[in-house]
Amino acid sequence: MLQSKIYTIYFGQHRVAFLEDAPADANSTIFADEDGAVSRAKVIKKVETDKFIAIVAKNPYEAFCRFGREFAMVEAAGGAVLNDRGELLMISLRERWDLPKGHIEAGEEPSVAALREVREETGIVAELVGDEPLIETWHAYDTYGRWELKRTRWWQMRATGGELIPQAEEGIRDIAWCDKDSLQERLNFSYPTIKMVVEALEERRRG
Description:
By secondary structure, the protein is α/β, with parallel strands linked by helices. It contains 5 helices and 12 strands.
């Protein structure tokens, strides 16, 4: 996992990063209190206009955790699935290209949930590559006045069987195996968190 990306939350296309120092490319900077507190209302106001907000804190991890407690937590899991040609499995959902993922059910292990979601959303049977998640991503959103923070744990996977069948009832319109060129094209119509997963996958494959 890339250390610089651990304490990053996305609000749609807008990035909020918890850091010790403000980077030069931040659109705005918010300084946490001495105890690491950050106003959720202030951050949400900033992300309405600014693409990159830096939260500067003495202890970024503690500030990140404290900020997260201002949201209802949602746990999800997903898969970065490769076939024997090294192509990545992607789904078309809500006019964007995405990776298969979904909520973790009560009592379900995250890795089991990831495999289940891949199978349900795409028809592909897969197995895990490695015992640990590839990366975690964080995404905040407003659901009818209730702010939620979704943590998605992603696993690298290898396809072992099945056939491409989009889960239409979940709004999945299309599924594709993407080679290097088509992957880059589809990432232009994806989410920042999905780009993070692809970067982490490429880094692991480079060894």
